[in-house]
């Protein structure tokens, strides 16, 4: 029989050799109240999940679904062994950690496959973004803008070349702010994009044309099977966010 969310909470606590009182202190509950949560008398609230993510890197999707690992790789503000975390003013909503020698670790919210549905409604919610798993990339300077990392689902962008963005890859993108959508996208510099569509969800495509007069973009798949993956048009009125892809971590 599959464990419930409340039972997985208990499994997670025991895996850390922590007491109910210790977890209660982290989550702001008395020991008895936390025990009621583990017994299933009380729902595991978002505040509990958020507190355990921040303190113990709890993988919230594992807690909710049982899929994946118990914890996620994240960087805590006290990780001084590799550098001090910084949020440069007027630069970005992503923290950077100074690794020394002119290198920085950029920490970006990761929208994996299991978070796709929730992201469509929570993409502007700061609290929601805080509890997402984190993805890191090494950069040589601070970067302006708002960044997200997305787990790629499907093989529409896989043509078996070095430009492929294969199923399971992590694509990091910089958001194109909506007020810039009336200007032609720099498709000569950034070929591939993650599009957050109101109905189609999160899709990764190459934009082959951007008609600024009509507000229509043409989406192209790298996969040569054009019966399965034909080009199609999207009106920008149907789009919530667009990110130009700046880094791809291919699944090994």
From TrEMBL:
GO molecular function, a single term: DNA binding
Organism: Pedobacter cryoconitis
Top-level taxon of origin: Bacteria
Name this polypeptide is given: HTH cro/C1-type domain-containing protein
Domain HTH cro/C1-type: 9-63
């Amino acid at each position: 029989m599959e464990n419930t969310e409340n039972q997985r909470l208990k499994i997670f606590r025991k895996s850390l050799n922590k007491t109910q009182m210790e977890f209660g202190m982290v989550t702001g509950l008395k020991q008895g109240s936390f025990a009621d949560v583990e017994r299933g008398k009380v729902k595991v609230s978002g505040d509990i999940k958020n507190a355990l993510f921040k303190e113990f890197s709890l993988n919230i999707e594992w807690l909710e679904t049982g899929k994946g690992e118990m914890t996620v790789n994240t960087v805590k503000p006290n990780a001084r062994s590799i550098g001090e975390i910084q949020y440069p003013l007027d630069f970005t909503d992503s923290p950077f950690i100074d690794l020394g020698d002119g290198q920085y670790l950029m920490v970006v919210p990761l929208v994996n496959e299991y978070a796709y549905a929730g992201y469509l409604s929570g993409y502007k919610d700061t609290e929601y973004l805080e509890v997402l798993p984190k993805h890191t990339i090494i950069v040589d300077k601070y970067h302006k803008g708002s960044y997200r990392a997305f787990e790629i689902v499907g093989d529409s962008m896989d043509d078996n070349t070095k430009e492929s963005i294969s199923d399971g890859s992590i694509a990091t993108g910089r958001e194109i702010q909506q007020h810039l959508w009336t200007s032609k996208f720099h498709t000569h510099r950034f070929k591939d994009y993650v599009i957050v569509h109101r109905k189609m969800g999160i899709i990764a495509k190459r934009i082959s044309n951007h008609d600024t007069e009509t507000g229509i973009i043409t989406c192209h798949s790298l996969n040569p099977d054009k019966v399965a993956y034909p080009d199609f048009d999207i009106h920008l009125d149907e789009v919530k966010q667009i990110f130009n892809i700046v880094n791809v971590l291919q699944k090994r």
